[in-house]
Amino acid sequence: MQQPVAGDRSTAFPSLYPSQAGLAAHLYCTHRVIEDPEWSLATVPHLTELCLQHIVHNFEKNPILDRLLPEHQRKVLDRLSTGLPLAVTANLISDEDYWKRCCTERWQVCDISNYGDSWKRMFFERHLENILKCFIPNTTDPNQVLELIPLCKDYVRKLEVDQFLPPVQVDQKEERDDLSDTGSDFGFGEVSMHHYDLGVLITALPHLEELHLTYGVKDCGMNFEWNLFNFTHQDCCNLAVAVKMCHNLKVFKLTRSKVDDDKTRLLVRNLLDHPCLVELNLSHNLIRDKGAQAVGKLISRSRLETLDLCNNQICHLGAQALAQALAENSTLTSLNLRLNCVEDKGAEAIGRALLTNTTLKSVHLGSNNLSEPTAMLFSQVLAQNATLMSINFSCNHLGLDGGKQLLEGLADNKALTEFDLRLAEVGQETEYLIHQIVWANREAARLGSLQHPPAKPL
Predict the structure, then answer these.
(1) What are the tens digits of pLDDT across the range 33-53?
(2) Taking the model in full, what pTM does it have?
(3) What does DSSP say about strands 334-336 and 390-392: parallel, antiparallel, or unpaired?
């Protein structure tokens, strides 16, 4: 065995310190591991996960969903962007959680109880409504609406559009000069202010059941002009034709749109004998007696159950026409004539109709300048009519004697559960006694409903 030579450190005992070369290499490797941005301790994802990531990232170009397993579909749907084009997602994705994300990310208030508890229906109805509210005739591309129709037609059942923008007006002086050469019978404002024609849209929505419209501009601020709130004759013609073709329409509301007698008659002409219409709301308009007479004809030739003509300009002649139709009608259950001017002549006519009518359950005659003669006749109604459940005479001048007449009529009445006599000048004591009778009727009706609950529909 070779003996180590004195002074020869290469064959001495192993050193307790690493060599400089080894230490340098160690430090170099450690430095590379820390600074490498792609280095990770995570394991390589499963191939399934990589495939799902690829599907999500390329969904717009190559939407794959139905061929996936249910658990894989769930993962894809949870990761999909809510900003994908509707042309891709509308008819492919039915998952409610996905459409819930689409709604909550876009709108702060989302109450699906108004949309049949369907998030998808809410999204498409509100999306379409927003497009219509912002549509500017002659400026906005009509394809924005037309291209959306095949995507949303199966989901839209109600439209609530509370704004219609008029066309952008160019130099009015030049416009007037151009119109003066055409010999048109219409004024400048009438020609220039037509709104979007709903005809093509409404007739293409086979499931549309409710239509709520207001022709006006919201939040116009300092740009306010009266012509921003014009519901033109041409608008009315277009809407009337569209509503007539909407055979499944059940609820039609056209409010705060300056609808006058001529426009009312035009609308009614196209609503006569409608197969499904059960509710009509023309409140807060400019309807007078001739318009009310047309609506009376509609009552006789429709299946209307609810009629709201609140805040118009209907006087006793219009009320008498409505009463005549009411006497012969067997479907109407609610009539609202609040804030008109039917006075005693009109209210008495309605009262006489209620002596024979057996379907009307609610009548609102508040703020109609009524007095004691109306109360006297309605005392007979209360004594004979066993169907009427709600009467509103608030803000009238029935007087003390009128209140006593109503109290006498209520003595044997068991049907009336609501009777509003606020500011009707009937006296506190009479109003209190009437309230006691009505409250007893309401309590009896409540107990009866508990003992005999209505049968649930099959």
Answers:
(1) 556 677 776 777 889 999 999
(2) 0.85
(3) unpaired
